[in-house]
Design goal:
alpha+beta; Gyrase A, domain 2; six-stranded mixed beta sheet; 8 helices
Length: 359
Amino acid sequence: MPIPAPLPVWSADAVDRLALELGGTVVSDAWGPSIAVGADRLPAGAFAAPLSDLGLLSVTGEQAAAFLHGQLTNDVEHLAPGTARWAGYCTAKGRLLSTFRYWRDASSILLTVSRPLAQPLAKRLSMYVMRTKAKVADASDAHVLIGLCGEPAATAAAQALALVVPSADGAASGEGGHLVGLPPMPADGDGLERPRWLLAVPAAQAGSVWRAIVTVAAPVSGAAWRRTEVLAGIPRIVPGTSELFVPQMLNFESVDGVNFRKGCYPGQEIVARSQYLGKLKRRMFAAHGDGLPPEPGSDVVPAGGGEPCGQVVLAAPDGAGGFELLFESQVAAVEAGPVLAGDRLLAPRALPYPLRAID
């Protein structure tokens, strides 16, 4: 049952209210509904971005962990409070319907997701609950997600919500919201990594919390935040890329998004076969290009011509007339290089993590 991909599939009223509260305007594109507030260029210091293109799923009930454990690529049953992980949700053919950052609080397991996919994914997961004591809900409209980079931004958010600042693989939850660690943005010219967090706050508190944060952090656009995801090498599945990739094609095992020791989940046999039979000949790569960012799922082709060798996974403007992107491709095509996204030459960039060998 494929995920439907018409846009929009979110509550426009909720996004419009947030834009009004933050003094921005809504711009909808293939990544989701973005709020134009602040710059597209990343500043040198701390910054924050409203992430209206991200949504939130909530799974509650005494068997919530057991239910999700049988659906996702990573371990949920043994997820300790205060820990955040990556996971994917696959079709029976092992293709990613979505990727998530997930954690648990005292009463629920929470998963961030591309906002256009939140409603259909909640509906799909709910179909498989059956007699399990679990309930899946799309909590996107009830919460606002904010991306934070730099210690001052995280400290301001934590103080506003009476939380502690977690590590890159941690999560802090309280009655007022959640502060979740993310992989850092890699070092640039100053040689220093820049820590990142994801803040989930009740919608009614979003305006006051945002104003507290931007007293110490520069506001930037959702597109600028997406660049931090690209630089961190973390894939995000959106409607244009849903059902295109096996997790290893996106290096998802290399960022601990797949647990090969857990039990069965949809597509598990194909994902495991890709890992242990050494048949995977495709990977995700990072690159830079000039011009406007390409669309998710658009073709990557050899510069010398021929059939497409890959597809765009995630792309964002660099704030200087070019773009950064992650793309999936045949390894042989990239090694033979160069490759193009549309008519734009891609300059290879190093990923911030080593790829784990496929056995």
